[in-house]
Design a protein that fits this description.
With 420 residues, this protein is of the alpha/beta class. 30% of the residues lie in helices and 26% in strands.
């Protein structure tokens, strides 16, 4: 895996993961270069999710609320869908995953952009979950809008297996319908083996349960079987599959396993790290078989990260790991690998004395006196109090700047940082 900074964004379309805004990235891609697009954008649901990222059990809250209401959401989607149509090949297809909140508006939008004549299916993904609510029928499906770029789209017919009863009766032979003079219909067995029953537009596929081996802790993660069906139906080996809202990378993982080329885009640094790990562990992808472009490499990049992403980025750069948040561990974001010293990460300039005081309290609760605070810079109050604690109360607290981290500083030993 080759990693390139944000300044390295370029129209590379060979097994590449872009960390950045998908509209910005798609505008760099060549016209007519993608065979299949699957997108699972944030739903217009006004829900808040707690994301548990892998083994860290770190919780991140994010919202898919749109302050301007449905019109703002549709406008946001429209810009991106226009770019998706531009980069699709004439034989390409697009599958837009949505739910009841905005399906009706997205269907009209897709008709406008791709043309009503290129609408192929409204696929119903049906699943089971615990019942909720008492004033309506249980909502147990999502909708996937399937459109093509033109009327020349690739479609490999998929089949459901035939029932045991039919298999027993016809011995797996293909059946042909014939009609007598009265118009009565009969079934006749042929010499050919039947491939099964052609698949319809209602798909019964289970959601990912809590104990599933494919679960990566992402709240909106979709099952691999769902993506397998889409990719097998609308692409062939060697084709380019794109997911502009990658999440935890189910689309690119399935594409990798099905010998398709892939291109993923995700704005979250943490999610990109998750996909990097998934490609290597689940797909056994070689280190040099894919590239990640747009990862933060500079202080300016770091300042643009969301707080949760910044924290994970710092910990990774320091070869540290995130803590599991428990009652009484407030103020501790991670631990150094070597000695498991507590680490606090602040995405701020001129950190004050209050941060040092709070970190000292967190160390006291842990029963230790050694730890690290990482920030862009530290004020004189923080530096002075750290020096006093280290000198008079036998603490060993190190203040580490983001610049030091970028210069290769690892949190293995402590020396008090002087103000610059």
């Amino acid at each position: 895996m080759r990693e390139r900074g944000r300044e390295g964004i370029r129209p590379n379309i060979m097994n590449t993961l872009y960390c950045g805004d998908n509209l910005e990235v798609m505008r760099t891609l060549p016209e007519g270069s993608v065979d299949l697009i699957y997108l699972d954008p944030p739903f217009f649901s006004n829900r808040q999710y707690n994301v548990i990222w892998g083994d860290e059990a770190e919780k991140r809250s994010f919202e898919d609320r749109w302050e301007g209401g449905i019109e703002s959401y549709i406008s946001w989607m429209q810009d991106r869908l226009f770019e998706m149509r531009r980069i699709l090949k004439e034989t390409g297809s697009i599958y837009l995953h949505c739910d009841w909140h905005a399906t009706h508006r997205l269907r009209v939008l897709m008709d406008d952009i791709f043309g009503e004549k290129n609408f192929r299916n409204e696929i119903i993904w049906h699943y089971r979950k615990w019942p909720t609510g008492k004033y309506q029928f249980q909502r147990n499906h999502d909708t996937i809008l399937f459109y093509s770029k033109d009327n020349k789209n690739i479609l490999n017919i998929l089949y459901n297996p035939i029932s045991e009863r039919t298999l027993k009766r016809w011995k797996g032979a293909k059946q042909k319908a014939i009609f007598d003079k009265t118009g009565k219909r009969y079934a006749r067995s042929e010499d050919k083996k039947t491939p099964g029953v052609p698949m319809d537009d209602v798909w019964d596929i289970s959601i990912i349960n809590a104990s599933s081996k494919e679960r990566w802790g992402y709240p909106t993660q979709k099952p691999e079987k769902l993506l397998e069906r889409i990719i097998l139906a609308s692409s062939n080996e060697g084709d380019l599959v794109m997911d502009p809202f990658c999440g935890c990378g189910t689309t690119i993982a399935v594409a990798e396993n099905l010998k398709r080329r892939w291109l993923g885009i995700e704005i979250s640094y943490t999610a990109c790290e998750l996909m990097n790990q998934r490609l290597k562990t689940d797909c056994h992808a070689a280190e040099d078989s894919f590239e990640i472009i747009g990862m933060p490499t500079t202080i300016d990049d770091a300042k643009k990260l969301q707080p949760f992403d910044f924290q994970n980025w710092i910990l990774r750069k320091c070869h540290a790991y995130a803590s599991k948040r428990k009652t009484g561990d407030k103020g501790i974001d991670g631990f150094s690998f070597l000695h498991k010293y507590p680490i606090q990460v602040k995405q701020s300039e001129k950190i004050g004395r209050n941060v040092v005081d709070n970190f000292k309290s967190a160390l006291d609760r842990k029963g230790g006196k050694t730890g690290f605070i990482v920030a862009f810079s530290f004020g004189s109050g923080a530096i002075g109090e750290t020096a006093r604690l280290n000198r008079e109360e036998d603490y060993d607290i190190e203040l580490v700047t983001v610049k030091q981290v970028l210069d290769g500083h690892t949190l293995t030993r402590t020396t008090v940082t002087s103000e610059k």
